[in-house]
Amino acid sequence: MVVRYFGGTKLGMSGLIQAYKTAAAMAIYESEIIEKQVKAEVEIQFPYASMNEVMKLIKTYDLEITFQ
């Protein structure tokens, strides 16, 4: 975290930029990547004749089928 207590120029522009740069680099270095799946529930209607095509898409995209 970079905190600027007053509006003075003790650090100077380059010093302030360096402070922000270092804080950002440290935050990225210390962070942890978390992967999450985004799920959305979608209802589709299709004619029975399209069943094979729909099932192929479900398998291709590894979709989950739920029933209500």
Helix vs. strand class: mainly alpha
List the secondary-structure elements in sequence, H or E: HH
Number of strands: 0
Instruction: Look at the structure and give the mean pLDDT.
Output: 86
Strand content: under 5%
Oligomer: single chain
Helical residue percent band = 40-55%
Round the Cα radius of gyration to an integer and report it. 26 Å
* Helix segment tally: 2
Shape call: rod-shaped
Q: Which segments are poorly predicted (pLDDT under 50) over 5 or more consecutive residues?
A: none
Main sheet specs: none
Terminus-to-terminus distance: 49 Å
Architecture overview:
The protein is an all-alpha fold and 68 residues long. It is 43% helix and 0% strand. The longest helix is centred in the first third of the chain and has 19 residues, at 12-30. The relative contact order is 0.08.
Fold blueprint:
Layout: H1 12-30, H2 51-60
Features:
68 residues; 0% strand; mainly alpha
In short:
The protein is built from 2 helices and no strands. The chain has 68 residues and is mainly alpha-helical.
